[in-house]
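Lab notebook, bench 4. We co-purified these components, and the gel suggests they stay together. Before we commit to crystallization screens, I want a quick structural picture of the whole thing.
Request: model the full complex, all chains together.
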Amino acid sequence: MASASSLKAISSLCLSNPFKSSPSPSQTQRLLGLNFSHSHSFPTLKSTPTHQSFSNSKNFPTAAFFGQNQKTAERSTQPTKVQELNVYEINERDRGSPAYLRLSKKEVNSLGDLVPFSNKIYSGDLEKRLGITSGLCVLIQNVPEKKGDRYEAIYSFYFGEYGHISVQGAYLTCEDTYLAVTGGSGIFEGVYGQVKLQQIVFPFKLFYTFYLKGIADLPAELTGKPVAPSPSVEPSPAAKATEAHATVKNFTN
Amino acid sequence: MACSSSPRPTKVQEFHVYEINERDRSSPAYLSLSQKPAHSLGDLVPFTNKIYTGDLQKRLGITAGLCILIESKPEKKGDRYEAMYSFYFGDYGHISVQGPYLTYEDTSLAVTGGSGIFEGVYGHVKLHQIVFPFKILYTFHLKGIEDLPQELTAVKLVEPSPSVEPSPAAKACEPQATVSNFTN
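Here is the predicted assembly.
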């Protein structure tokens, strides 16, 4: 893997047009093997944003959202409590991911390109392996003036026996974004809210902050003090090796 | 921030849906985009099948959506997919779901939303595979909506088995054996 200093350099760039000059699948594989001098081999992840596009993230329009449900019987008058959950998504390059499908058949990233992907996820304190992400990024447009791309992303986070959380929203390679939490299963059944996506190292390390509503208190195992995001963060060796004490139960793989 | 948001209604309503691939909708369309011989990340599977009530007496409509192959699990003799699709119930509206589809075991998907009588819906749905990949039984656990019509809920579930079939009338879409303007 590239040294930390080159990773830092990469993370400070806003990368774009990953495949401008290397459209073929075989070249994609080579790039994934890691050639940082050409970088951006692949989508899915974000770059360090200097400015958040959503300043009012917490002022979720819940009143408007619930207006339409007033006709149904309400069973509770408790306020909707927000719970934060931090997750690290790390591409360890051992899942064949991502798979950049250049279906637009153009040299520049264009509408028509699809990017299925699946990476590993760890708790915010990087002590436990939780499971995986899996889903799809749909390339929407290349944004040359921002040296980046816009994707529409639809994917899920799997937390072993705890269940899963599904999300949908914008993934911009040059900015942090907020995605909608569309639902979940297991302990996340009925969940709603949003999740902030921060890219740490394009495209290998991402840090998520979920703002979850509608569910019971999260287990302590998931809510440890997060390690502050930086390009050099790594899961603990035990978590990476999926030793029994360093994973959630039946972590998804 | 003031606690101005009304909490969502939490009464759970259950109902069953059978999804049956009658092999007359050109589905599924397995796109081997990974360009590898075995199922690999990159393969996409758009699909659409017919859906019936839990007693298999009425045709409801269709499913429509996409399965994304995530990885093949040789030790389980199956595959993991990420699935995102909708169930269409004719004039009643639709329900959208997202989550895991494992060809070798039951899963639980998130109900992400809906339209018509399902507008505002949330919850989850259990997917039980009966005959891979032709027959699936779903049990929806829905919240946030008005009481569902009897046509969908007051049915005696036909227990899942490989030989379950829709009633001939439902299969033939005779008017008394479909919901209003069933989706096709």
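Chain A touches chain B through 56 residues (CB under 8 Å). Worth comparing against the SEC data before the next meeting. Chain A has four helices and nine strands.
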